[in-house]
Amino acid sequence: MPARTRSRARIRPLLAAVALCGSLAACSAGAASAPRAAEDAKPAENPAKVTVVSPAAGRTVTVTATGGALTVVKVVDADGGVLAGRTGAGGASWVSDRKAAPGTSYRVEATARTAGGKETTTRSTFTTPEATRVNKVTLAPGKDTTVGVGQPLSIVFDRPVTHKAEVERQLKVTTSNGTVGSWGWLKDWSGNDRVDWRPKEYWKPGTKITLDATLNGTDSGGGWFVRDYRTGFTVAGAAQVVKVDLDRKKLVLERDGRPLRTIPVSGGTPGGDKRSWRGTAVLMAKEGTINMNSETVGLGDAYDKMVDFSMRLTWSGMYAHAAPWNAAHFGRANRSSGCIGMSDGDAAWFYGQVRAGDPFEIRGADTKGTVAEGNGYGAWNTSWEQWKAKSALA
Questions:
Q1: Does domain 49-127 have CATH number 3.30.830.10?
Q2: What is the pTM of this model?
Q3: Which one of 4, 184, 299, 368 has the fewest beta carbons within 10 angstroms of its own beta carbon?
Q4: What pLDDT, in 10s, does the model give residues 336-385?
Q5: pLDDT < 70 regions, the chain
Q6: Which CATH architecture has domain 240-381?
Q7: In what order do the strands lie in the sheet with 304-312?
Q8: CB count in 10 Å sphere of residue 208
Q9: Measured CA angle at 302 (ends 265, 276), to 5 deg
Q10: Does domain 137-237 match CATH 3.40.50.300?
């Protein structure tokens, strides 16, 4: 009996110890779960805030994000045209590559993501005011035409261009063979602003040229452009140059450096207003049979007649053409009213051989002077260094 009593006595302290350990374990577990409860109670992450800065016409579109980073930005006009842009470092802002055009509605959709991965998409629209004045352009040569080696790319503006550098930045010329060239600003014969792109030397035969004029949304200073322009042309596969010697009263058509034919001619009458121009004039157009009236070029009533095989060289009225009334003077004397005349037969052959863009290199002791840059295409009468200096970005 006494032995059993001692055994029970030993069990009671052991149970007490077990109970104590259980109590301590319960306390310890409760303390460990406290941080998780606090974490669960943390407030939800706020979404990023996206702001679209609606610009006036002629300014870039800006989208910003606060409390997150921009992941996608789409700006589309009413016609579905996309206004592309770039996101800055860190995704805090996005700026369009191009400016907003006047009188255009845009739809913006921007998505931003927080550091915790929460995404927010914002949609908005804005419309820029209509342009009060619109500037338009006339491009030469015509689209998809084939021209001679002297033809420049020429843009004449309807309204003044005072922001020449801004406009020139939007004009991109691409050639099939990396031709070196430059823009040059000048006054067209009409008095309008004009910019021409000419290569350093005559084009290489077969060159393909493309112009991308991304002018939509650009302020010229005299009016807004409300569209882009794209055109392209090809240089003929043979290099033709017309050499005109008014002192010797002849012209020679050369093709790839070889003479094809020598033609006796009669140039402008020496000693007065009927003299011809010298320098390089580019064949502007083959106009066929036209009426020539001396009053249109300030020569009174000297002539008024229909003229065959007319090839325009300047805006001021110098042509190469058939002049059968001057037959006695071909190769002998200059007796025209400023043009380069030849026989019907020679004119018919010559007209069939040349094309717009062929350069006429004219020399002569008694002439009116050198063909001006804006009087047709006189850019070749300027040195390369002088021409480059005419760029607004020089």
A1: no
A2: 0.83
A3: 4
A4: 999 999 999 999 999 999 999 999 999 999 999 999 999 999 999 999 99
A5: 1-43
A6: Beta Barrel (2.40)
A7: 285-293, 304-312, 319-322, 340-342
A8: 13
A9: 40
A10: no
